[in-house]
Specification:
alpha/beta; Rossmann fold; UDP-galactose 4-epimerase, domain 1; seven-stranded parallel β-sheet; 37% helix; binds NADP nicotinamide-adenine-dinucleotide phosphate
């Protein structure tokens, strides 16, 4: 049986992968930036400063090892705030870690994004040339290229927006709607949501089978945050007119690299792993689990 190393074990995705592997009884270690990890499954590691050999020493032997790299500075805004540091972490150090473990026989699984494309058309395919327009996407492209140069035993998983109900803005919106409070949602910002649980399932399948190559995971269509909020209100039986449209373009904190289309072609993922893109209503159902319809007068 394979054993796993989750680099970035306390992140949104990495933590869910870690606990799911633990639940299945798989041998797994995860990295944290905390100096004093809470148990033997946790290893202290900072991509900015820790030598990779310290991690290697704690993980060896390397037979049947899957290294899932989900650590890094995620998102356009965070990368733009410090392009040099984020590139150092997301590209230079990430590739150093990947090369170290790959050279010792491990399988490398790298988390990438639909932002490697410019969003000029729906359903980019795995064979399409990358064409990132933002800093975050360019860093993902550079890391992907370095990883592909390693040859086999490398998988790259490009994903659109991962969601979970205990995440903002969904958690806050559900609470507001429960309390019959108004909320604002952007009508000019789109997402292509996928439940994070599906991402974890796909990552496990790729790692368990050792499937090399590029894989896509995306929602079935783009939807605005305003439409999502309206659908959520409808789903839980709240008043839909509590949801007011706002324009992201009017807000000062707006950042660049908003794509018109975020969907990815998932033919390969469906054929090999039997995972299809979730519909918007399936995602809404997932976000609203446990929220019964409200008793409106
Ligand atoms: N979430 C999505 O919708 C989505 C979609 C497509 C692709 N992805 C990709 O999937 C990966 C995981 O995303 P996520 O949403 O889970 O991101 P996240 O919640 O921001 O997690 C990132 C992880 O990286 C760690 N990290 C940051 N800087 C580090 C450093 N210098 N050294 C070591 N660890 C460091 C963080 O540690 P701390 O916990 O200590 O901060 C955190 O555990 C990212 O590569 C992201 O680009 C995510």
């Amino acid at each position: 049986m394979r054993k796993w190393l989750a680099i970035g074990g306390e992140g949104f995705l990495g933590s869910r992968l870690f606990y799911e592997l633990m639940r299945r009884g798989i041998e797994v270690q995860a990295t944290t930036r905390r100096r004093a990890p809470r148990s033997v499954n946790w290893l202290s590691f900072d991509l900015q400063s820790s030598p990779v050999s310290t991690l290697g020493g704690a993980v060896c032997p390397f037979e049947n090892l899957v290294v899932c790299i989900s650590a890094g500075i995620a998102g356009e805004a965070a990368c733009l705030r410090n392009p040099d540091l984020s590139r150092y972490i997301n590209v230079i150090r990430t590739l150093e870690v990947a090369r170290y473990f790959h050279a010792r026989g491990a399988f490398i699984l790298f988390m990438s994004s639909n932002m490697v494309f410019d969003g000029s058309k729906p359903f980019f395919e795995i064979t399409d040339n990358t064409c990132a327009t933002g800093e975050y996407g360019r860093q993902k492209v550079e890391a992907e290229r370095g990883l592909m140069d390693l040859g086999d035993r490398v998988a790259i998983l490009r994903m659109s927006k991962l969601v979970h109900r205990m995440q903002e803005p969904w958690e806050a919106w559900l609470s507001k709607l429960d309390r019959t409070e108004r909320l604002e949602a952007f009508s000019d910002l789109w997402l292509t949501p996928v439940p994070v649980d599906i991402a974890v399932r796909l990552i496990e399948m790729i790692g368990d089978r050792g499937s090399s190559g590029i894989f896509h995971l995306s929602g079935s269509s783009d939807v605005s945050y305003f439409e999502m909020a309206t659908l959520i209100a409808r789903k839980i039986g709240a008043y839909e007119d509590l949801v007011t449209p706002a324009r992201r373009a009017d807000k000062s904190e707006a950042v660049s690299a908003v794509l018109s289309y975020n969907t990815l072609d998932m033919t390969n993922t469906m054929t090999i792993f039997g995972i299809r893109p979730p519909t918007i209503m399936e995602v809404v159902d997932y976000l609203c689990v446990g929220r019964g319809a409200m008793n409106r007068p």
